[in-house]
Design brief:
The protein is mainly alpha-helical. The protein is built from 13 helices and three strands. Helices cover 67% and strands 2% of the residues. A hairpin with a 2-residue loop joins β1 and β2.
Length: 366
């Protein structure tokens, strides 16, 4: 599918072929009315010239303006670049020759309709004896036949254009459209719904290489009237204000993103510290419980030690004393007795000395 096929006006006018059988039927019925009163060639010439000449002249000189429907037409200034390229294709010599070929073919078809018209006289649904009125109806119907065949044929010819040829087509000059195309409708700003109008694709213009090269050679790009000096090009205050606002908005967005990331990191660190604090508190509580358990165990041990009964330990000396012979015991007893005697004698001597000291003192005083 070619890029410019999305234009809805092409398909609307191509669908005009559907009305062709109706106009052919009306033309056939008009030729079947009454008996011929004029020569055959005259009647055929009247119908053919009336139906073929206006449409052929229109397609040759001022092709039909396809961006129109019934009695309304789209304003030329509302056309897209692609639509103006389509108008250029409608003015091509190929379409002119095609219009002539269609006109000649339809003249042959008219001759066949005239020959078989008496057969269809029985099918005329109304009683009409005026041959002249029948020829007039046939001429108008044949005009409709040419219109609803010439326009779709020219549209089909344009639609068969390759993408490369269409892309290299120059858009038709905007100021010449109303002069070089036949528009029968009232100009309006919008003809189709907006979603259909947007289907028209604006194709870029690709100039021919020879033309572009010659243009480059003929124009001095550094001339003052072509390229202004750099210092003369100054941005407008509105543009500077818009650029400054965009920079401020971008900076604000960047700062908000950084602040959001930093806040998330702080929240994560705070949660980690809270978890660590909870773990430390649990460890301290465990240590306190263990310390209480240890204190209770020590208290129990001390209580058991206090409650232990006295045990008379038998030492080796006691056993030796028990095993000592009675002689040793007697010797020890005598030694003790001697010691007691000595102590008693010493005490008596001390008593005597104390008793003598007062007498001596009294003598010395007298």
């Amino acid at each position: 599918m070619r890029s410019f096929w999305s234009d809805p006006y092409l398909w609307i006018h191509l669908a005009g072929l559907a009305a062709l059988p109706i106009w052919l039927e009306l033309c056939f019925l008009g030729l079947a009315v009454g008996d011929p009163i004029f020569p055959v060639w005259l009647e055929l010439a009247f119908v053919a010239i009336s139906g073929i000449a206006p449409i052929l002249w229109m397609q040759w000189q001022r092709p039909f303006y396809i961006f129109s429907l019934l009695a309304i037409a789209l304003k030329p200034e509302k056309l897209t670049l692609s639509q103006r390229q389509l108008l250029t294709r409608f003015k091509s010599p190929q379409n002119r020759l095609l219009a002539v070929a269609v006109a000649v073919s339809f003249a042959i078809v008219l001759r066949q309709l005239y020959i078989f018209a008496p057969i269809g006289a029985a099918a005329v649904p109304f009683s009409l004896e005026s041959r002249g009125l029948g020829l007039l109806v046939a001429a108008i119907a044949f005009l409709g036949c040419n219109l609803f065949l010439q326009v779709p044929i020219s549209v089909a010819s344009v639609m068969l254009t390759s993408d490369a040829a269409f892309a290299s087509t120059e858009p038709y000059p905007l100021e010449q459209i109303s002069q070089h195309f036949t528009s029968l409708g009232l100009p309006v700003s919008q003809l189709l719904p907006e979603f259909l109008e947007n289907r028209a694709i604006a194709s870029p213009v690709i100039p021919s290489p020879t033309k572009s090269e010659s243009a480059v050679e003929a124009v001095d790009l550094w001339a003052d009237d072509v390229v202004p000096p750099i210092e003369e090009v100054t941005p407008s205050p509105t543009l500077e204000l818009v650029a400054a606002e965009s920079v401020v908005e971008e900076s604000t967005e960047a700062i908000s993103e950084v602040n959001g990331i930093a806040l998330e990191e702080l929240v994560v660190e705070q949660e980690a510290l809270e978890i660590e604090a909870e773990t430390t508190v649990e460890a301290i509580e465990a240590l306190e419980i263990e310390a209480e358990t240890t204190v209770e165990a020590i208290a129990d041990i001390s209580t058991e030690v206090v409650d232990l009964p006295e045990v008379n330990t038998v030492t080796e000396s006691d056993s030796e004393v028990e095993q000592a012979p009675s002689e040793d015991l007697r010797a020890i007893a005598r030694i003790d007795q001697q010691s007691v005697d000595k102590v008693s004698s010493a005490e008596s001597s001390v008593i005597e000395i104390e008793s003598e000291e007062p007498e001596t003192t009294s003598d010395s005083l007298g």
